[in-house]
Design a protein that fits this description.
Oligomer: single chain
Number of strands: 11
Order of helices and strands: EEEEEEHEEEEE
Radius of gyration: 13 Å
Helix content: under 10%
Strand content: over 45%
Shape: globular
Distance between the termini: 40 Å
Low-confidence stretches: none
Largest sheet: 7 strands, mixed
Structural class: mainly beta
Length: 116
């Protein structure tokens, strides 16, 4: 089992920045990828960015457009998402995700609200 706890969401004005953090615990040695997804009201959950154990990153370019950066701290077992130049359309619940060979784990989600 892997447990994920997100932090760092909140309310920010358009053009501002937020940094989300996800702390993993449990069977972290089984994790191959960690990432961030988001789900707006009435919408499907979509990938924002993910990072592999060896540091390779993937971004949803249509979402991120160079504004977000994912990073990880192996010593702390955390994955962060730095979000800059936020727009109202970035308003969503952001979920941390961890993938192992057999399982897919999710955090509880953290609300990000961007006001215009």
């Amino acid at each position: 089992q892997v447990q994920l706890v997100e932090s760092g969401g909140g309310l920010v004005q358009a053009g501002g920045s937020l940094r989300l953090s996800c702390a993993a615990s449990g069977s972290i040695f089984r994790i191959h990828y960690m990432g961030w997804y988001r789900q707006g009201s009435g919408e499907q959950r979509e990938l924002v960015a993910r990072i592999s154990n060896d540091g390779r990153t993937n971004y949803a370019d249509s979402v991120v457009k160079g504004r977000f950066t994912i990073s990880k701290d192996n010593a702390k077992n955390t994955v962060d998402l730095q979000m800059n130049s936020l727009k109202p359309e970035d308003t969503s619940v952001y979920y941390c995700n961890a993938r192992t060979d057999l399982d897919n784990y999710w955090g509880q989600g953290t609300q990000v609200t961007v006001s215009s």
